[in-house]
């Protein structure tokens, strides 16, 4: 059994302040900007950077709830399929004559419902692991999407709908504005509210938090429903960018999102990491991809670079954790030797 | 001890990443050098975006494109997302727009899904054409098509008739039941079969092997079992034709059942040599890419605008004319190319 010493009065020291993983990500961002503007003359200008931001931000909305889910030691790999299904429902309803505004509301509802169903299964059958449950719903939701639309595409949305994916608010992409607003909201939710603190508590020790009166099930349901809702928002932006949709959209988005969360310093064993880290990681991966795309490196090479980046970041975060609890490790090693 | 292990592991990773970065910077600089060589008049850059990486047909297509661009002394940018998705292609096109390329040639993963981003490219003065797999008429200036679907359909029936002496049962082994190009070709095959000279030929079944080797093999075996008098199998897909030929060869049915259709020479050489498939067809992906490259160049050099009736010289391939289609315009590469015992040797190593 591991014991965790939680001191509720953390003294502020400059050393601790600068040792935060978020500074590492900011440094990484600066390095990426420097390298990118050196290797490509097209990187450092306003249009390029805003255009790139519009391209990679769509899936970033799912990062918010995914951070919470992973802090709670769970995972949701059905978000890509949820996005595809909500997008298909929206397009099908609109093509059937439903007004676009209602179709968008339906899209959000379907997303939230998909997420709620994941949460419900996990709460109802506690012995099931989140990987298996969301793997099943990942296949299920994608299957329903294919059933509705078969292998066709649907679209012909009204002109104003393209504003989501392509519009600007006074020179700043609309998607970026919304992302920043939501990011501030989620940072406050996770870092400053009771719900946020309870999420950390559940991640650190689910049993103890349950026994101490934390409504674990309620929080789980809420967080998974949020994941579905955010997947639906992703669906709206993605569909708007493409102007049409088909059942295989948002393929593998779950992996991209999990990669961003992992790079953001959220520990996979739960209870650790900050929302801000994941938000920064979105931009690190996004601009890294864009910069490498500008010098036209092959797609496989891109995967290698991101893979290495992830390995390094996970090792470093892990290293920090082990250093903080050296005694625990030592004891474990001793125990191993004895047995 | 443990800590030192971790530190050393970490250092190895950091070194790897530094090495990777170093390489990238190196290659980046060299390509930058290329573009800035001319100073004021930079080399014209033409980009091609294929469906996904690791597709042999796509590699040959891009090779042809690169050849054409090199001939006109431009710089070719070859890109493809690692998954065959619209999202991946949008991202790449955005990157190409930022790089201010002169033209973008796209083999699309979706007919409509790229419209907004391609329209944006066109608005920024970039010439946009599609090749192999088209985008809708609003989002392209011209489409470069391999061959007329009518010609592809009809020629396969004509060939089969010649192989089996104009009478007997025939079957089609296609890709998936929703594959739009295959379905169109099969429609034309059926129309060709309505002609009186094929009265004694009977199309008994259209089977779907889904472009999977296993399923195509079992579908072929089922066809042979259900129709013992079957004379020919037409497989208008590269996976299907190879699978059908393998089954016929393994069962020792050479001479009794013939196979023809559309196949890759490298995969079919064995069966053309052993007579299972006397001859078959395919367009040359290298030529297709070459024609696309030349078309892109003609658009950038303003020899054509992509309107119906425009004509231009496509280097080694000769002269081409832009023709009208249902929505938009296209350039046709020409009739499918015949591969037989006489020429298979020179092609089997090419693609």
TrEMBL record, chain A:
TM segment ranges: 21-44, 56-72, 77-94, 100-123, 130-149, 169-190, 219-238, 250-269, 276-295, 301-321
UniProt-recorded Gene Ontology molecular function terms: transmembrane transporter activity
Keywords: Cell inner membrane, Cell membrane, Membrane, Transmembrane, Transmembrane helix, Transport
Protein name: Autoinducer 2 import system permease protein LsrD
Native source species: Aquibacillus salsiterrae
Places the protein is found: Cell membrane
GO CC term, one of those recorded: plasma membrane
Membrane topology: Multi-pass membrane protein
UniProtKB/TrEMBL annotation, chain B:
Example GO molecular function: carbohydrate binding
UniProt entry tagged with the keyword Signal: yes
GO biological process: rhamnose transmembrane transport
Domain Periplasmic binding protein as annotated: residue spans: 47-301
Gene Ontology CC annotation, any one: outer membrane-bounded periplasmic space
Name of the protein in its database record: Rhamnose ABC transporter substrate-binding protein
Subcellular location: Cell envelope
Source taxon at top rank: Bacteria
PROSITE patterns: PROKAR_LIPOPROTEIN
CDD domains: PBP1_ABC_rhamnose
Assigned keywords, A-Z: Signal
The species this protein was found in: Aquibacillus salsiterrae
Signal peptide from the UniProt entry: 1-19
PANTHER family: ABC-TYPE SUGAR TRANSPORT SYSTEM PERIPLASMIC COMPONENT-LIKE PROTEIN (PTHR30036:SF8), D-XYLOSE-BINDING PERIPLASMIC PROTEIN (PTHR30036)
């Amino acid at each position: 059994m591991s014991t965790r010493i939680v001191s509720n009065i953390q003294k502020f020291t400059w050393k601790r302040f600068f040792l935060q993983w978020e500074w590492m990500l900011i440094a990484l961002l600066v390095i990426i900007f420097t390298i990118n503007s050196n290797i490509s003359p097209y990187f450092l200008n306003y249009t390029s950077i805003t255009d790139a931001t519009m391209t990679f931000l769509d899936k970033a909305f799912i990062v918010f709830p995914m951070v919470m889910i992973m802090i709670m030691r769970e995972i949701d790999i059905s978000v890509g399929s949820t996005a595809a299904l909500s997008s298909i429902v929206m397009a099908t309803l609109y093509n059937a004559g439903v007004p676009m505004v209602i179709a968008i509301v339906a899209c959000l509802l379907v997303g939230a419902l998909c997420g709620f169903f994941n949460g419900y299964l996990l709460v109802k059958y506690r012995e099931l692991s989140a990987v298996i449950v969301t793997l099943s719903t990942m296949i299920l939701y994608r299957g329903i999407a294919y059933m509705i639309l078969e292998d066709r595409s649907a679209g012909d949305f009204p002109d104003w709908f393209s504003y989501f994916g392509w519009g600007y608010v006074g020179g700043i992409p609309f998607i970026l504005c919304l992302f920043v607003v939501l990011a501030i909201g989620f940072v406050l939710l996770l870092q400053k509210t009771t719900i946020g603190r309870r999420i950390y508590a559940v991640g650190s020790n689910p049993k103890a938090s349950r026994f101490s009166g934390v409504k674990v099930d309620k929080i789980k349901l809420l967080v998974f429903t949020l994941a579905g809702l955010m997947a639906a928002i992703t669906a709206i932006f993605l569909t708007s960018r493409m102007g049409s949709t088909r059942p295989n959209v948002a393929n593998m988005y779950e992996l991209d999102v999990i990669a961003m969360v992992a790079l953001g310093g959220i520990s996979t064993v739960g209870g650790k990491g900050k929302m801000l880290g994941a938000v920064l990681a979105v931009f690190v991966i996004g601009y890294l991809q864009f910069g490498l795309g500008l010098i036209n490196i092959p797609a496989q090479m891109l995967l290698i670079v991101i893979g290495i980046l992830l390995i390094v970041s996970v090792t470093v975060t892990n290293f920090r954790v082990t250093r903080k609890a050296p005694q625990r490790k030592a004891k474990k090693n001793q125990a191993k030797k004895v047995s | 001890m443990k800590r030192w292990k971790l530190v050393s592991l970490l250092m190895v990773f950091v070194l790897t990443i530094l090495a990777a970065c170093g390489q990238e910077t190196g290659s980046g600089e060299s390509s930058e050098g290329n573009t800035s060589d001319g100073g004021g008049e930079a080399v014209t850059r033409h980009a091609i975006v294929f469906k996904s990486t690791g597709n042999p047909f796509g590699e040959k297509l891009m090779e042809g494109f690169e050849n054409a661009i090199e001939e006109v002394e431009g710089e070719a940018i070859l890109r493809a997302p690692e998954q065959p998705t619209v999202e991946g292609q949008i991202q790449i096109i955005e990157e190409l727009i930022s790089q201010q390329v002169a033209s973008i040639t796209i083999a699309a993963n979706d007919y409509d899904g790229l419209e907004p981003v391609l329209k944006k490219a066109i608005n920024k003065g970039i010439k946009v054409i599609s090749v192999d797999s088209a985008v809708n008429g609003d989002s392209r200036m011209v489409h470069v098509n391999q061959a007329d679907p009518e010609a592809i359909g009809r020629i396969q029936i004509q060939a089969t008739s010649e192989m089996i002496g104009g009478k007997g049962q025939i079957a089609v082994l296609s890709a998936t039941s929703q594959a739009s190009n295959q379905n169109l070709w099969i429609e034309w095959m059926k129309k060709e079969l309505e002609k009186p000279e094929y009265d004694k030929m009977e199309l008994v079944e259209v089977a779907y092997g889904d472009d999977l080797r296993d399923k195509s093999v079992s579908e072929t075996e089922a066809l042979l079992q259900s129709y013992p008098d079957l004379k020919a199998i037409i497989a208008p897909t590269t996976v299907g034709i190879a699978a059908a030929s393998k089954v016929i060869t393994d069962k020792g049915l050479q001479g009794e059942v013939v196979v023809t259709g559309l196949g890759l020479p490298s995969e079919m050489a064995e069966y053309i040599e052993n007579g299972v498939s006397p001859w078959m067809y395919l367009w040359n992906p290298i030529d297709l890419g070459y024609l696309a490259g030349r078309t892109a160049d003609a658009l950038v050099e303003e020899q054509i605008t992509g309107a119906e009736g425009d004509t231009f010289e496509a280097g080694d391939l000769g002269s081409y004319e832009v023709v009208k289609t249902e929505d938009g315009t296209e350039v046709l590469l020409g009739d499918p190319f015949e591969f037989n015992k006489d020429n298979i040797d020179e092609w089997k190593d090419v693609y």
